[in-house]
Amino acid sequence: MAGAFLLEEMICPEEAESLRNFLSDCPLPVAPADALTASYWASPELPGNPVDELIGRLRRAPGLADLLPDSAGAEWWWQDTDNTDPPKVFHTDCNLVLPLGSDVALKSHPEWSSVMYLTDLGGATAIFHQNEVLAVWPRIGRYLLFPGAHLHCVLFPEEPPSGDRMTLLINWWTQKPHGCSPSPRIAEIAEIAPPATAPATAPASLVPPRRVLAMQREQSFEDHVEEWRAQRVPRELLSAKKDHVLAVSYLSAPPEDWWS
Asked: For the segment 161-185, what is each residue's pLDDT rounded down to a tens digit?
């Protein structure tokens, strides 16, 4: 479905809490002067923090290793929003570089974009590809992987969340993108936060990634385009949500740039 894969319980609640604590005090990445995006580049072989360690485990996980054979590594950053923040708008994940003397940015996309959910709160991640839409709601330990050039956004939640929506974003690249900051090491931020450690126990389940099966709709995407454009699940589709996932295949694809 939309080329996406979904894994459950990739981290336990204790590790999610450890990651939240680490990220809450982690310094933000800084982009160089010629880069328009900022992120960290992981060091899974020599992990210096809980995120590096997690990325190394993901890279070796059953099924994921088969999806990432040509990966040169991963960049990462995070989002932490509360009920006063608007959801992330429509976009594609990319690396943007502005060469010296040019007013045209060079854009490249990761091989895979992915989301690790660190809380159960907030709106769904929605991925759009041709006539397919996949919406995945937050669940601690849930890991969503999808092609890096796919349009996506965060939807408004059906009800105001009682706390923060926190996600760890991990993009897998076949070549290291320009401008990534070195992943911070615990020793470098020891004065900011105490070291966060992963739990001794393994995740509850490390199963191969599963593709999400789509519900076929005998209608056009345009029947729901206004609600999707408003970053809301079409009301008539809410009852079709199963296990906090909604996957829809329409009869026809939307017009180009329908979200703008």
From this structure: 889 999 999 999 999 999 999 999 9
- Reduce the DSSP state of residue 226 to 3 states and report it: helix
Kindly report the pTM of this predicted structure.
0.90
Beta strands in the chain (DSSP E): 5-7, 40-41, 73-81, 95-97, 106-108, 112-117, 125-129, 132-136, 143-147, 151-154, 165-173, 181-182, 210-211, 215-216, 245-249
The CA distance from 147 to 236, in Å, is: 28
If you search the block for the tokens 């979200």, which residue do you land on?
Answer: 259
CA angle 10, 84, 7 (to 5 degrees): 15
Sign of CA dihedral 131, 169, 59, 137: negative
The residue with tokens 């996506």 is: 152
Going along the chain from its start, the domains and CATH numbers come out as 5-249 (2.60.120.620)
User: Do strands 215-216 and 245-249 pair parallel, antiparallel, or not at all (unpaired)?
Assistant: parallel
Alpha carbon distance, N-terminus to C-terminus of the chain: 23
